[in-house]
Amino acid sequence: MQFLAGLLRPGSHVPDGFFLSYELERVQLSTYGAISANLSPVQKRMVLGMYLIIKVIVARILLNPGKSGFGGGGTMKLGDRSLRNFKLIASVITHATLDYLDDITNGGRRTASEPGAVPEFGDHIFTRKEVGPVYMTAYTVSLPGQPPRQGDFHREMLDAIHALLFKFSALVEEAGKLIPPGSPV
Amino acid sequence: MPEEEKKDRIMKLRVRCKGLLNSLSEALTSNGL
Fold first, then answer.
1. Cβ of B25 under 8 Å from any chain A Cβ?
2. Are A89 and B24 in contact (CB < 8 Å)?
3. A141 DSSP β-pair partners
4. Do residues A13 and A32 make contact, with C-beta atoms less than 8 angstroms apart?
5. What is the pTM of this model?
6. Burial A52-77 (b: 16+ CB within 10 A, else e)
7. CA quadruple A18, A24, A29, A31: dihedral, nearest 10
8. What tens digit of pLDDT does each residue of A165-184 get?
């Protein structure tokens, strides 16, 4: 948490390769790879979202389920169907996160449209079109004794991401207060 | 794949996607990481 809080301060040096192209297009860096201006709250949320959701949850865990303890901690080989499900979940979460970040950083203009939503992922994730039946289709909820209602999965995902990043940003901000003033960046 | 099975599979995937994000969100609140 403190690492992230420190990283978001102006003048802090970003480790080489830490930012993905999506972030590099939205954050001003100096020639030496330091954050050259105060990041806006929206830019901070973007960096935190890309870190927590895209780099940790998607890249480290969902796209590497065998190494992340799924399948008996490596004792069992995950089947093709399981691997495909992990890839589908990773892809839906990636597209939803980029849609959310486009909404807050770019006025809703979709820059993360396929192909190459995250070029660094290559074909490790499915394209938006491929996940369309899961991600973008409205559905009907039918509960016993209640009239059917329409669900909007896309909207629900954006709300879930908003809630997660809101909490995560608040925690990182709190952690930032623990960094002594004037400590090296 | 039969249509019903396909629908069921899609719903399960959706539940997992949302569940993962919501669980993480809850964990951040309850543990104050």
1. yes
2. no
3. A149
4. yes
5. 0.85
6. bbbeebbbebbbebbeeebbeeeeee
7. 90
8. 999 998 888 887 777 766 65
Q: Please tell me which residue of chain A has the smallest CA distance to B29.
A: A167
Domain locations in chain A as residue ranges:
40-175
The span from the CA of A163 to the CA of A157, in Å, is 10
Which range, A52-61, A71-80, A112-121, A176-185, is most confident?
A: A52-61
Task: Tokens for A112, please give them.
Answer: 């993360």
* Spatial separation of the C-alpha atoms in residues A103 and B14, rounded to whole Å: 21
Tell the residue number behind the tokens 């997992």, with chain if given.
B16
Cα angle A22-A124-A35, degrees, rounded to a multiple of 5: 20
Q: What is the distance in angstroms between the Cα of B30 and the nearest Cα belonging to chain A?
A: 11
User: What ipTM describes this predicted complex?
Assistant: 0.87
Backbone angle region of A62, left / alpha / beta, with phi > 0 → left and psi within -120 to 50 → alpha: alpha
